[in-house]
Queue: 2 jobs
Job 1
Amino acid sequence: MWGLKSDIHTHKFIQGAFYKNFKKMGFEAVWVDDLAKNVNLVNRGDIIFAVDVASKFLPIVKGAKYVLHNISAEKIGLGENYINLQVHTSSATGEKFGIPYVRWDSSRRTLFQPWGVPTSPREWRDPKENKSKAEYWVGSIWNNDLNQGNSVFMEGYIRTLKENGIKFSQHGTPSRIHPRGISESKSMKLVNRSSIGAAVVGEWQRENNYIPCRLFKNVASGVAPSSNSDFSELFGLSGGIFDANPEVLITKVLELKYLEKVELVAAAQSKILPYTYYAGIHRILTLLYS
């Protein structure tokens, strides 16, 4: 894993998830920062995962293979020993991989797939029956000039939670003091205790059918699928609660009975099995060596 080990950029969680899952799979995995002193660590036969925001010193080694995110293979002089890795959106091209939200464009050597869930199914949780009146948000609340973030929707979401007597608290945002944020196990525990646990996306993400890793993580944490974006292609028309209005979204989730949540979570967890990092890594390696 090339880059972001000591950084606070949000993509470090992606690098970290790949790193941990490669180790679980028995690979000799190494994670380094994007520094000149680490260039000599890369050898022929290695697989290097790299992202544009941490690629200043990315070494190009003959005989190594590369998995690139937002880096032009042509500009850095790679031949066929690479694939591009992109998150799936409505603009994804190529052939379907047999499941929703995964495509392979062989002409561009690009695999489109969600980042997915970093934990294994044996760590996934069942719904919690007696929850406190609290909503634990793990991650960032943000926006930019293109309105790609989630802050606008979150304003209405948080306001509606308060109107329903639900306290909102934010956790896990990386900082210089806590660059790793919080652990996956703690994140799952918090989400499991949440009254709603919706996978909120920004307006750009909703319009472009962006699939956030939060969607998979929350289901794995034992909450029923819910979002301000429509993910019924994966879960089915009755497999979750999807509404762009925060008041409607929250009201519908609160109306669910416990046994209904149990059924929804069980069905949803079976459908996210192809979106674990283990499954994603298997697809990457299959294409990288085909």
Note: The first strand starts at residue 47 and ends at 51.
Job 2
Amino acid sequence: MKQKTYLLSSRLSAEETIARVGELLAKEGVEYRTEGLSISSVKTPIALISFQGNLYSDRNWFGLNPFTFISSVYVRCQSSKNGLTEIIVQVNRIRTLLWVAFWVLSGALAASRMPKPDGTILFILVTVAAWFGLMSFLGGYLIKKEITDCLNV
């Protein structure tokens, strides 16, 4: 749950793939280290307040920098027998789980001050929205999409 792995493939060489992923990470404010055909984040940006510039991105249709919602990312490349480069992307989502917990606790606090059926509905809606919005979308799909897009340019 805290670790998500994606398997991608590209027609680019492994070296070009690592270079492009490095450019993407640098543009998104992620500090990283490369070793051979792998790249790992050393520090991802943190945005706690909505007016911080590193929270936003113009590289996706949603407008948010998904790397501010994850703890780390690790990308490893290897050449396959069919001529494609296999790319393994591992996303550590501990920070995302903390954001989900924050929203679930906030929803529980707000729901506790409401009448029973309304509070229950609010709590369920906030929990589902936090899980799918943060864990599945920002901490998963959008990371994979940005990496895929940078390789297809």
Note: The mean pLDDT is 92.
